[in-house]
Amino acid sequence: MAEQLIIDAAASKETRYQSLVPQIEALISGESDAVANLANIAAALRQTFNFFWVGFYIVKNNELVLGPFQGPIACTRIAFGKGVCGACWKDKKVMLVPNVDEFPGHIACSSDSKSEIVLPAFKNQEVALVLDVDSDRLNDFDATDEKYLLQVMKLVERFI
Question: pTM score, two decimals?
Answer without folding.
Answer: 0.94
